[in-house]
Task: structure prediction
Amino acid sequence: MAKLLFLQELEYEFLGPMYLSALLKANSHETRMAIGRDADDFSGIMEEYKPDLVAFSVMTGSHRWAQRAAAKLKKKYNALTVFGGPHPTFFPEFINEDGVDIICRGEGEEALLDLMNALRDGRDFTRVPNLHIKKDGTVIKNEVRALCSDIDLLPLADRNLYDCLDSVTERSVRNVITSRGCPFHCTFCFEDSMRELYKDKGKYVRIRRVDNVMAELAELKKTHGARAVYFCDDVFGIDKKWLYEFLPIYKKEIGLEFFCLVRADVVASDETYAVKLKEAGCSGVFFGIETGSEALRNGLLNKNLRDKDIYKAAAILRKAGLKFRTYNILGLPGETLDDAFATVEMNIKLKADYPWCSIFSPYPRTKLTEYACARGYLEKDFQPDSVSRSFFIESRLNMPDAKRIENLQKFFQTAVLWPWLLPAIKLLIKLPPNIFFRGWFALVYFYVYLKSERRGFLKTLIFALRNYKHVIIKG
Result:
């Protein structure tokens, strides 16, 4: 047996570590999770647990905190560290950072199991596929292995991993994923880069069997006291044959309220889709609009989603009795203030129940960021460390209307929910960005989040207050 310690800063359950932990535990290894703000917060568990490996799952933005914590723990405890998740997958040069011993690229279950087995047995692990390893001043780079073709073979996510969260943490709504991989090619997303990483290494989009998902849901309901389920697939039920088999079984055997991500054109193409979701217990769906400009949406973002499909989808959802959240982005490369207001106006016309809006975050090595760099909206050498930890703070683009668009994002939900305030908002956004605008945004965002996901007020408020400065204020 080898011992692994997951570390993270945010008080939130992430599926990635839970899947990794499940496979390791199924193979007689031991795992624990600890959450803290600084490396010093982990001193107690490091000394008591004495892990063989310390693991971080990081996105671009959160990688800075993890790297700093790893460097301190390595200096104090000589800890062996491994980093997985989107950031090391797409920025493998992260292996050169102080405190980073190993990175895992792509899907990590089998790679981490091989690594833990090698640590247990005292064997060399420098040739494990998916891993880049720093050794004797050099970096050994291994290719990724083939994708797991049958994801039903993986153990169910280890929900007990996050028992370290205290009793006031909101855990009544549980995340479940029924598939891996997205079939679409949006330019603001890393999916195309992931597909390229796994080129000729297996089927990219994989869907779990209905009975496998049902087993997980039954456990969530019986053992973990779930009150509602959030299906966080990129598009829930993209295979409608699968979905229409799943939904009546879900209603009969689980019967919990659920939410899911959809695409507007999928809803618009088949009215039955929304009706069946509602009948099975769905109370709300979330879908991306991104921008009210069809030219930007389909030309710049490659969303392949027409205005008429968005409006039709909204009408179908309302007819079926489903409320909906819309995802929007302001501050896109080349976007004008008029374009930004077109996004507001579209959401007002749709009567979006739960409007959501971010500022474009230029993640390096996505097609959209490469476009922004090529056209001078960003410096050509824009680096991952320049990415803010939150996509609610500021625009990084060099555009004439950037500051007004940044302000408009703070009032986006306000404008959509209470459109009579739009004239005042048009005046307010002329002022310099300030903490009062951010504070107002945080209040309205909290209100919309509570309503859209039926979260408990007190526990969600405590979570928001604990993490406010790490999500809203801090870059």
Q: What stands out?
A: Confidence is low (pLDDT under 50) at residues 470-475. Residues 166-473 form a domain with the pyruvate-formate lyase- activating enzyme fold (CATH 3.80.30.20).
